[in-house]
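[stage:ingest] chain + small molecule (manganese (II) ion)
[stage:ingest] validated
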Amino acid sequence: MKFLNSPYSFKEANVVFFGVPIGKRFADAVGALRQTPMYMEDFDLESKKELLEGVKVVDDGNLEPKSAKDITTYTRSIVKSGKVPVAIAGDHPSLFTVPAFGKDIKVISFDAHCDLKDEYEDDNIVDLSTLWNGKFDARVNGATWLKRLSEIIDPKNILLIGVRSCDAKELAFIEESGIGYITTKDIHENKEEAIQKIQELTKESKVYITLDVDVFDPSIAPGVHQPEPDGIYFAEFKKLMHAISGSIVGFDVSCLKPIVGNRVTEFLTTRALFEILSLVKK
Ligand SMILES: [Mn+2]
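[stage:predict] done
[stage:export] tokens:
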């Protein structure tokens, strides 16, 4: 199964969809996102436009990385060819994809969690590197990836949206490093200020989006690993996405955990994917 049955060759395409095999439910997540688009309209009644107009996707299958570097090298090759990489993974692939864009990239992270722990050990957390080195790494996993990324790019170029789960140490790091953040409460109580923050960060910039499906409220997205109360709704996601004033040059979608017999989360995720695709650089 290919995403959108991709009629385009790699050469013709301007968007490259690929799976990154990290995270416990990777196969289910990427499988659901390859299948669900068949059941959905990409016509947006609000704007009366085809969301996928001008989007020529090629599905390049799933990567078989032997190291983190392989993911970065692959992503860089897509960027160099002028196409937009779209990485689908079970857990965040961003630590490995974002460095392909260089140091000036702005990163918008839609996530309930801030994932800024310095070290974390928990059987429920999938070690992002287990796949290629067989050992658990407390410094490189789903709870620490953004801390590691903030050591590679300027933390002031990172903005967390919909965040509502962190500990005191993570908050202290956010404040000292200058990472921006917008909580669900901020969005509900002062949407205009949230929009302004997004516009300011992304103005005349290259922007990378990382969408962790758990940013959405668990009532509309129950199929995630760690559903956190008080999430954002689709209309809010859409509004905030449209506030991005720079050029979206790449994105990833992670942490979808399909539930047998309840497909609302993969339908929502697919619609979110269409929305982002409508806004990417073409
Ligand atoms: Mn999360």
